[in-house]
Design goal:
By secondary structure, the chain is mainly alpha-helical. 64% of the residues lie in helices and 0% in strands. The chain has helices at residues 5-21, 26-33, 37-46, 54-81, 86-93, 97-106.
Length: 127
């Protein structure tokens, strides 16, 4: 790296992009560059990047997960309103039925009435 300053600049720019746009951690940058965390940090600073705190990284990742979860909830809502059942959606997404219900409620879905799967009863007859 020290012999080829252009390659160092390209690597530093790539690491900065990974760090700022994709939310990579210093450990992930070090793995991508084949360097240590300290070297990845140095390259990031050389490229003009600023190092985040651990809390900032965690907050950023939580926000990204929440956005993905909202997108999933809206997708499930569209499929549910098109006629899919909650158990079918749960099986397709590899989530529990309770999680799918929770996501549907978060998306503001108007739920269909539950069906009575027992024997058909005539309301006029009394046993």
């Amino acid at each position: 790296m020290r012999q080829d300053p252009q390659a160092r600049l390209r690597l530093a720019a790539r690491l900065r992009t990974l760090y700022e746009q994709h939310g990579a951690t210093l450990t992930e940058l070090a793995a991508a560059a084949g360097e240590t965390r300290r070297a990845a940090r140095r390259l990031l600073i050389e490229a003009g990047g600023t190092v985040r705190t651990t809390q900032q990284t965690l907050r950023m990742r939580a926000t990204a997960r929440a956005a993905e979860r909202q997108k999933l909830a809206l997708s499930l809502r569209a499929r549910y309103e098109a006629g899919a059942t909650v158990p079918d959606l749960a099986q397709e997404c590899s989530y529990s039925v309770a999680t799918v219900y929770r996501l549907l409620h978060q998306a503001g879905t108007c739920m269909r009435p539950q069906h009575n799967h027992g024997p058909v009863r005539d309301p006029r007859k009394r046993p």
